[in-house]
Amino acid sequence: MKTRAPALLPVLRSDAVGELLARLYLVPDTAWTVTTLATATGLSLSTTTREITRLVEAGLLTEERIGRTRQVRANSASRLDSVLRDLITLTYGPVPVLEAELAEVGGVRKAYVYGSWAARHEGVRGAEPNDVDVLVIGDADPDVLFDAADAARRRLGLPVDIRRLSPHAWADPASSDPFLSHVRSGPMVELDVKARA
Predict the structure, then answer these.
(1) CA 184 to each of CA 59, 115, 135, 178: distance values in angstroms, whole numbers, following the listed order
(2) What's the predicted TM-score (pTM) here?
(3) pLDDT tens digits, the chain, 197 residues: what are they?
(4) Closest CA to 93 of 33, 27, 31, 37
């Protein structure tokens, strides 16, 4: 028997929907194209298009067509907006929130979420995460990273711990550092950050 999305709340049918909603609801000042959303979430264009269409039809997203381009954003006029935003923040929120906060920090070459939140994101069953652990590779100023972690904490409602590591230490395959061994032994979710001067 094939199941279909419920008409009253056609969301969170899959992780794909969670990833899409996280971008749309937690980066609200951005009008996203379907292609940009597909790239940001790593979903296929057909899956992204199908899910976006379903969410627009449900009134959870608004869309605007500019020529052949379809731009969508969260529908802030929906009665479900604040509740859905809170739910998405608590579940799928760390990736887009941390990407936004770390985009403002110079010297970040790579960044990963690890620990319990990354494990849940990657499908490992367990208790609800109590915090978000982040590893930053680069030479970012520790004080600026602390401020980014604090801003992310305020947005997510969860403690955020950012640990910095030099590119040399990260690249050393012979490292016997117990912390690195621990991080590398578990799931990691790479954040989309660009190195800045």
Answers:
(1) 41, 10, 11, 10
(2) 0.82
(3) 444 555 544 567 778 888 899 999 988 778 899 999 999 888 999 999 999 999 999 999 999 999 999 999 999 999 999 999 998 888 889 999 999 999 989 999 999 999 999 998 888 888 889 999 999 999 999 999 999 999 999 999 999 999 999 999 999 877 788 999 999 999 999 999 974 43
(4) 27
The torsion of the CA quartet 83, 85, 88, 92, rounded to 10 degrees, works out to -170
Tokens of 163: 């640990």
Q: How far is residue 98 from each of residues 2, 21, 73, measured CA to CA in Å?
A: 37, 15, 19
| Beta strand ranges found along 4-68 (DSSP E) | 32-33, 61-66
> 70-75: which pairs have CB atoms within 8 A and are 24 or more residues apart?
70/33, 70/34, 71/31, 71/32, 71/33, 72/24, 72/31, 72/32, 72/33, 72/34, 72/37, 73/24, 73/28, 73/30, 73/31, 73/32, 74/24, 74/25, 74/28
Whole-angstrom Cα Rg for the chain: 18
DSSP string for 55-111? HHHTTSEEEEEETTEEEEEE-TTSTTHHHHHHHHHHHTTHHHHHHHHHTT-TTEEEE
Query: How many whole angstroms separate alpha carbon 152 and alpha carbon 180?
Result: 23
